[in-house]
């Protein structure tokens, strides 16, 4: 009952900014910007569907070379076909729920001598039941957070970021509902697992990981965190069918959800000292409720936690 009230409050609080209504309001203030991306290489994770596919298509249409990473060979082949074939949309098969496969992918990129201008850490999912990967991680933790950490760090260790590169972490407005806590982040048993709480925690952690990387990397690359609003994708249809049924008319298209990633990757605005999270080309505060500021760990501690989790897989 309490949870139902909390959900109602949350959805009511964010209905306007996260729906197409908020997008329409903010679009009024948008300025044209140079959108050509010729000569750049964009690496997009979760690129075979939803928002990731939209980012891949939009970057490709503006002239970028796109490394489109996901699991499904068929969906990636369709992305390449829709882009007109050619050699600027490259399908890359990776399973980001596996840290070993994420490391293999980094090694593959290094072996090919890739130089990445924009990394979009987009892959993410919300599960309704507890699943462990072969490496012993809860699947959504591995996919939503630990693989992002391993990929982002791996590209830097291998010196694969181009000069002036940027990383864009795809969070979610769901993170506004939670402070950062380690307990929910990487559940070890079904008993302690709540898929929605875990997802929100991973998305809050991406905000803090962005801060940690900016503190450590000092702008090479520069790291942004954004969220796309509420977007009608296969992921939402599977994970939140009731939410989609009620709000369908107000959900954004994948292209609308992707816009801020394109804008960030193209305009690369200066980093704000206070942090923040981007939505519709505007830097919003990281907290909407006083409750979520009460956190037991900070960005550096989160970084240490993720590094230890990654080391536990042998890296
Ligand atoms: N949709 C929304 O309203 C919304 C709101 C807030 C935040 N977001 C965030 O935006 C991101 C994209 O969401 P979406 O709604 O577009 O998701 P989606 O429709 O479920 O698409 C997810 C993509 O990720 C790929 N993927 C899933 N698991 C993977 C894995 N283990 N390894 C490699 N690729 C994997 C899927 O393709 P394969 O099956 O081919 O691997 C697919 O291309 C997520 O991080 C999500 O949390 C979405």
Main attributes of the structure:
two-stranded antiparallel ribbon; about 45% helix; Rossmann fold; six-stranded parallel β-sheet; about 325 residues; binds NADP nicotinamide-adenine-dinucleotide phosphate; 8 strands; alpha/beta
Write a structural description.
With 315 residues, the chain is of the alpha/beta class. It has one domain (33-311): 3-Layer(aba) Sandwich (Rossmann fold). It is 45% helix and 14% strand. It contains eleven helices and eight strands. The chain has helices at 2-18, 20-27, 50-61, 73-82, 99-111, 139-157, 195-217, 234-239, 241-247, 254-267, 299-311; strands at 41-45, 65-70, 89-93, 116-121, 161-170, 222-226, 277-279, 282-284. The chain has a six-stranded parallel sheet with strand order 3-2-1-4-5-6, sandwiched between helices. α3 (50-61) packs across α10 and α6 (139-157) runs parallel beside α7. It binds NADP nicotinamide-adenine-dinucleotide phosphate. Residues 46, 48-52, 70-72, 75, 94-97, 122-125, 143, 170, 172, 227-228, 230-231, 233-236 line the site of NADP nicotinamide-adenine-dinucleotide phosphate (NAP).
